[in-house]
Amino acid sequence: MPFDRMPLEIWFDEYQFEVDYDIGESGTKFLTVKELDIDLNEVELRYGYHLGHPDLRKEIAKQYKGSTFNNIAVTTGASEANFAVIAHLVGPKDNIIVEHPTYPSLFQVPRSLGRDLTLFKLDWENEFRPDMDKLRKLVKPNTKLITLTHPNNPTGSVITKNELKEAIEIAEEVGAYLMVDETYRDLMFDTPPPLAASMSPRAISLTSMSKTWGLPGIRIGWAVADRPIVEAIRAIREQVTICNSSIGEAIAKEVLHKRDEILPVIRKAVISNFKIIEEWMNNQNWLEWIKPGSGVVGAPRLRQGGSTDELCKTLVRKYRTFTVPGSHMELDGHFRLGFGGNQEELISGLEQLRRALGELYS
To answer: Do residues 215 and 33 lie in contact, with contact meaning Cβ atoms separated by under 8 Å?
Structure first.
């Protein structure tokens, strides 16, 4: 079973470190240890717990009503949790339904494992919102896992409480699990729906410190699930990553402990950036989008139609500005535009984007 490279990651390898302005990133601006003001001098650089340090798991569990630290598996980013859940639940004769578009790992893993994959398409005409009637029709007797991502990457669409409840019911009817990537949930513009794992033992919540918290470099994510799923993640981790970075876990614990102090500052900056990008989109003629409902990304497309590959390459090579072409996320004709970074960088990047659009399409 060959594991092919993900086009998105190839694009990142080739271009992300060759630019001055990054308006394609899918998280808030990365932080430094100095900015966090965390004392790491006493961190023991030893092997850690397979499921994550108990103190970190207890801190995480505070967010999930009805869950304890025994329902938490801390992983190497949410990507490892995604891999482990799919590998455990979806066998060679089973079906998995993956909402699409989404972060490519969610559909590339089952493809690489040779699983029966069904894509649950989000449509422009429905403002990239999940259509539960469509989802119900996709379910098969051998469906074992359904995955959703909301707020969505790269469209920014959101799911309502009633839609989430219905998605769980659809999974339960066939004895499947629903896995929800909730990485951007803390960046909801309005009141978020309940955490999926708090609604049913057949629901699994995934998230990480990478997007909302601006800490992709510590590689800390987690899954919240019933005990058999958590134990399966432990077994898979023992054969792959063993445990997490002790430094990463220490940083994650301190940041989450200061959650009520740090999160409002992050949310204020993101909402301010969103207003800037919304006004910019409303005052130019080459692009159109479904306005993101939350998160830090959107997926504009050219009004005239066609691929955005030339635009994104021109932005990098001539204007030293980073975005992600939709072709690298199986969303041809769109590109990923991020607004989670530094405000000055966002404004400068949008100006470079305006110049590139004028050069190519005037």
So the answer is: no
